[in-house]
Design a protein that fits this description.
Radius of gyration of chain A: 19 Å
Number of strands of chain B: 0
Helix content of chain B: over 70%
Strand content of chain A: under 5%
Distance between the termini of chain B: 138 Å
Structural class of chain A: mainly alpha
Number of domains of chain B: 2
Distance between the termini of chain A: 35 Å
Order of helices and strands of chain B: HHHH
CATH class of the domain at 9-102 in chain A: Mainly Alpha
Radius of gyration of chain B: 53 Å
Number of helices of chain A: 11
Helix content of chain A: 55-70%
Number of helices of chain B: 4
CATH topology of the domain at 9-102 in chain A: Rna Polymerase Sigma Factor, Chain: A
Shape of chain B: rod-shaped
Oligomer: heterodimer
Strand content of chain B: under 5%
CATH architecture of the domain at 9-102 in chain A: Orthogonal Bundle
Largest sheet of chain A: none
Largest interface: A-B, 58 and 43 residues
Order of helices and strands of chain A: HHHHHHHHHHH
Chain lengths: 217, 154
């Protein structure tokens, strides 16, 4: 019971406080969700633009919090805004003939791969200290980002939301404002295209035993 | 059952009804191609799921909150200006109303004085006609001409 009191405020309470002009409540809301928004933006538009996208998303959230309906899931609403900001950005850049999803740049000149797969993250894995394993993973991360960047924006959004963020079909339908059939079809084509791109890496995966296939998750 | 990537992916995501799932399972037991396909798809899904989340740059929260605070401060700063302009507008409206009333009033007064002048003029003309008629008919002998206008006297 004490932990409930000392724990972070629920999102609904934070939103209610934000609506009274409590900027500290909004700061808490940003701290709670900045990782998700920034990460999703990285996968959608690349790390170069992800910071600006994140700022734009939260400013939009602040401006339109009064339109948020409490019966909806805040996370779904937040991802919908992020998706819209990302798609607007991609359309704008494409119109200006710009380059999308910079594949070879790491933010702040760090050793981070375009997917944000940092050496520090890999350090948690004992195998990651091996320079060869590190190089392999870097190459795989590059290949993955490259493959993701070749997907259409809408196919990439579905794939990232489902396979990287674990959203269910129904939730993705609400985030992207499309039908369930569209979600399924986009996911199917995105996975098939990504598998073709990553085939050289996936061919190393051995055939799973027939019994293993029964444990569908 | 024939090989179907669509069904394999639905099987992987646990989106099939129980009878269809059983049929796919039976098919997988006999088809090494589909088993390899499923293994690759699972490996890809796991790869995507295990890519660590990128770390937001330091100071991002402060930047965002700074923008919001600036916006709030701007709104507060603008509020008195709005009142000032509203006040100016209201004052202007009162002044315009007063001016309009004065103009309308004075035009009424002017109209009244015009009517009075016209009435006087008409009376003078009538009087001249009467005196002229008296002279013409020869009835002027019974008229006290001292009251008649100088131009109308015989």
């Amino acid at each position: 019971m004490n932990s409930r009191k000392s724990g972070p405020l629920p999102v609904e309470e934070l939103i209610a406080r934000c609506l009274t002009g409590d900027v500290r409540a909004f700061e808490t809301l940003v701290k709670m969700h900045q990782g998700q928004v920034y990460g999703y933006a990285c996968r959608m538009v690349g790390p170069d633009a992800a910071e600006d996208i994140t700022q734009e998303v939260f400013l939009r959230v602040y401006r339109s919090l009064h339109t948020f309906r409490s019966e909806a899931e805040f996370k779904t609403w937040l991802y919908r805004i992020t998706t819209n900001v990302c798609l607007d950005h991609l359309r704008r850049v494409r119109r200006q003939g710009g380059r999308l999803l910079s594949l070879d740049s790491a933010p702040n000149g760090s050793e981070e791969s375009p997917l944000g797969w940092t050496i520090a993250d890999q350090a948690a894995d004992p195998g990651a200290t091996d320079p060869e394993v590190r190089a392999e993973r870097r190459e795989l991360a590059q290949a993955l980002q490259q493959a993701l960047s070749r997907l259409s924006d809408k196919h990439r959004a579905v794939l990232v939301l489902h396979d990287m963020y674990g959203f269910r079909y129904e939730e993705i339908k609400d985030i992207l404002h499309c039908s369930l059939g569209t979600v399924k079809s986009r996911l199917f084509y995105a996975r098939r295209a990504l598998r073709e791109e990553l085939r050289p890496y996936l061919d190393a995966v051995g055939e799973w035993p027939a019994s293993g296939a029964s444990s569908a998750s | 059952m024939r090989c179907s990537l669509d069904l394999l992916l639905a099987y992987m995501d646990d989106q099939l009804s129980s009878p269809v799932r059983d049929r796919v399972r039976h098919h997988l037991a006999r088809c090494p191609v589909c088993r390899a396909e499923l293994a690759q798809m699972r490996a890809m899904r796991e790869l995507l799921a295990t890519v660590p989340a990128p770390t937001p740059p330091p100071g991002l929260v402060e930047t965002i909150v700074g923008h919001v605070r600036f916006r709030e401060a701007e709104q507060v700063r603008r509020r008195p200006q709005v009142r000032f302009w509203q006040g100016c507008f209201a004052g202007g409206a009162v002044a315009a109303a007063a001016l309009a009333m004065w103009l309308v009033g004075s035009s009424w007064l002017e109209r009244d004085s015009g009517v009075a002048a016209a009435t006087a003029l008409e009376a003078a003309v009538q009087e001249h006609i009467v005196y002229a008629a008296l002279l013409e008919t020869g009835a002027g002998d019974w008229v006290d001409w001292a009251w008649a206008p100088a131009g109308d006297r015989p």
